[in-house]
Amino acid sequence: MKGRTISRHFRESFKSLGRNGWMTFASIGAVTVTLILVGVFALIMTNLNKMADDIENDVEIKVLIDDLAGSKDERELQAKIKKLPEVAEMRYSSRDEELKKVIKDYGDDFTLHEQSNPLRNAIYVKATNPQETANLAKKIDKYEFTAEVNYGKDKVKKLFNVLNAGRNAGVVLIIGLLLTAVFLIFNTIRITIIARRDEIEIMKLVGATNSFVRIPFLLEGAWLGLLGSIIPVTVVAVLYSSVHKNISPNLKGELVQLVSYSPLIYQVAALLIGLGVIIGMCGSFMSVRKFLKI
After folding, report:
1. Which domain holds residue 20?
2. Looking at the structure, do residues 166 and 277 belong to the same domain, yes or no?
3. How many Å apart are CA 54 and CA 49, to the nearest integer?
4. What does pLDDT average to over the chain?
5. 77: nearest Cα among 7, 6, 159, 147
6. Could you tell me the pLDDT band of residue 259, with boundaries at 50, 70 and 90?
């Protein structure tokens, strides 16, 4: 394709935006509103998934060591646990450290036990895959000198079920929203093209090839998608910046944290721009094709 032809296609696509002012405005408006919803929901779901991961990763197994175990036995037990492929992290806590935690959590009344500490030495273990916590706990429980293995069996199972259900619901909702976005943008651009069917038919009757007719409309669809994504990207960036600045300081030291502003906001921006341009071009392509069959 000659450079002159390409430049003509670009000029025509820009002129069409101006000539069809109200239809252009309607198309950009539909893209803008839809992509704002997609962007906000994408930020919400990303943060909910991050919080779910944070909660899962905080689940750990507490292995209470038998009082009959000597120092050598404890070291051997730790070595066995550490060798397990499912183990991501392991740390030892003496009975004195355990008592200090109890006093910190429940008050100074428990300082009475400092003279005769009733607690056991413990090993805290985290699984590489939090969903495998139960299976890992069963393996450890079979080792010698493990007096008790605790991980909140029923509570952890319910927690994982709730988190998995939340993730699945989120996936369904985001897919539904994306399909809705495609439908709305596609149909709005389709209406824009249909309103200009006479223009397409005249071009075909005077001998224009399909590609000559189609390319300006494809470019126009891309401009509509691009222009319609500018406001959503700006809104999402400003909104998340404000939320992050106001909420993140209050979550310092807490279990759950918000996803960092960067690179998340750039990823969402790329998603919105890509969706707008691709759906705009696809909408134009499918709509023009119908009128090229003369």
Report:
1. 3-55+159-291
2. yes
3. 9
4. 81
5. 147
6. confident
